Amino acid sequence: MSQSSFHLAILTGAFFLHGASRTQAQGVSLKHPWVEATRFVRHIDSFVPKRMHELGIPGAAVALVDHGEVVWSKGYGVADKATGAAVTPETVFQAASISKSVTAWGVMRLVEKGKLVLDAPVEGYLTPWHLPASQFDRSGVTIRRLLSHTSGLSVRGYAGLERSLPLPTVEQSLSGDTRGAGAVYLEMQPGTGFSYSGGGYTLLQLVIEEVAQEKFSDYMQREVLHPLGMEHSSFEWTPEIQARTASAYDRSGSLLPNYLYTEAAAAGLYTTAVDLAKFVAASMTGPNGEPPGRDVLTPQTIRQMTSPAPATKGTYGLGFQIQELPGGLLMVYHPGGNAGWGAIFAELREKSVGLVVLTNSDSGEILATQAALAFAAQPLYRPILWTALALALLLCSFVGWIRFLLGRGHKQWRWGPPKPGWLKLGCATVLALVACVWWLGWYSDVVSRAMAGLNGVVPADEMPATFRWLTLVVTVWCLVGIASCFTRRVGTRGQGSTLRSFVPYKS
Questions:
Q1: Residues 113, 151, 368, 385: is their CA dihedral positive or negative?
Q2: What does the pLDDT average to over 481-495?
């Protein structure tokens, strides 16, 4: 399982029409008047096929949630390149690390039933396996800290095993039978900081099995997946799930095995775009007043899980990542990346809208993250529009003022060296730098290559369409400002003057 730095480093995306990918439309009409929804669907319809082609992603499925229900879904590309089977919203994908968010619901279900205590040492729930002796305090490893990645445990992620190989038990995985990921042990003092640990969720898987006295996958199916209507989802690769599962591919487009995971809580969820969208919707108030949590969890528990946990610096709750956006909006989300799979879900809590993206490629986590960032930027549509209009009005006023002076003959302007020289030359240089930095930063892949080593990823393409208008206004402002720096007032004309244009400067 690859929990890469894409969701931290990628601040860029791509969005313009490209018809090279095969698109399979499977959707429903938008049911709520979310002002950005229609624009965002158009954005996705252009952005996803184009980026799939550039990144070599065979297939993807996307779903949109609005006010607690799935309102739109669509499949793009192919689930299997050999057969040409199209992706639909019901195609099954591996959800990778998104498994942790769903697992957190299962853990909190036991907390609400009084079978687990959030701040109790996990050692009290373990019988066949225990944390190795350590220089750090093992009693500090609690359920809360396991859920929030502040327990200090090792093992960031897992690689999985091919179907032909026997899967180890959960205890064997915790002890190091992990295809190179290592054993789970305390590597830092619990509660002192955030350190992402898939191993911590494998330990939670063992805790669930110990407390519930049944297989983890069976417990999750009965207590979480089925009650939420996730009928085509499972933590086990059953024959029914296999028949619906897409094929996985690496970055070069070569077929990969469907790797299996003993560590299901950390990386083993199979789901569809529609099912995962139902999971996202369950955290919101439903269209008919259904409470957040949908009676699987209470609304109070949902708020606790999606609020920052101690020692995470505000970036992680109990199974959910948290990102503060401009304007005070909070995005609750979780990305996922296994070998051959990339995914993300994101929710804007204040607007009660959510997005799901699932892909069958190693490059899919890039696409999924870019889509989520584009989703998060949609509320900026109107603020950017009003900013562009205000700047355009000021620009028109400035140009009109100059035109008025020229037309009335009160001023005479000629091209020539800036006077006073250094002041105007400095202003012109600053304006030229603003224009260059704006275009290089927003409309090239310089930022993505410098920050994440990615080529062809353009930040402006994740922004709403109004950002192009803002760019046009900023560019014209810079050009007009530079032009004004290289003109000078050389005299005053009478009322009868007919001077109406710039006159070339002659020394």
A1: positive
A2: 63
What residues have CB less than 8 Å from 218, skipping those under 6 apart? none
Supply the angle between the helices 364-377 and 37-55 in degrees, to the nearest 10.
Answer: 160
Report pTM.
0.81
Instruction: Fill in the amino acid letter for 380.
Output: L
Dihedral of CA 161/164/166/170: which sign? positive
For residues 362 and 252, give the distance between their C-alpha atoms in angstroms, rounded to a whole number: 9
How far CA 410 is from CA of 36, 407, 505, in Å, comes to 49, 8, 18
Give the SS3 label for residue 100: helix
Q: Which bin fits 293, alpha (ψ -120 to 50), beta or left (φ > 0)? A: left
**Cα torsion angle, 307, 310, 314, 318, sign:** negative
Which alpha helices (DSSP H) does 314-420 contain, by range? 364-377, 381-408
Residue pair 16/43 in contact by the 8 Å Cβ criterion: no
Q: How far is 488 from 331, CA to CA, in rounded Å?
A: 51
Between residues 448 and 274, the one the model is more confident about = 274
User: Three-state DSSP class for 14?
Assistant: coil
* Neighbouring residues of 269: CB distance < 8 A, sequence distance ≥ 6: 94, 95, 96, 98, 99, 102, 233, 234, 235
Which amino acid, one-letter code, is at 24? Q
Span 200-217, average pLDDT:
98
Angle between helices 466-485 and 421-443 (to 10 degrees): 160
* 128-131, long-range: CB < 8 A, 24+ apart: 128/171, 129/170, 129/171, 129/174, 129/175, 129/206, 131/184, 131/185, 131/186
Q: Kindly report the backbone phi and psi dihedral angles of residue 333, in degrees, each rounded to the nearest multiple of 5, phi listed first.
A: -160, 175
pLDDT at 382: 79
CB 308, CB 322: distance < 8 Å:
yes
Q: Which of 306, 323, 235, 233 lies closest to 276 in space, CA to CA? A: 233
The predicted structure's pLDDT at residue 24: 38
Question: Quick check: 247 pLDDT over 50?
Answer: yes
118-138 exposure pattern, b = at least 16 Cβ within 10 A, e = fewer: eeebbeebbeebebeeeebeb
Region of poorest pLDDT, from 257-261, 335-339, 372-376, 379-383: 379-383
Are 473 and 391 spatial neighbours (Cβ–Cβ below 8 Å)?
A: yes
pLDDT band at 452 (very low <50, low <70, confident <90, very high): low
The average pLDDT across 363-370 equals 89
Neighbouring C-beta atoms of residue 339, cutoff 10 Å: 19
Q: At what angle do helices 381-408 and 466-485 cross, to 10 degrees?
A: 30
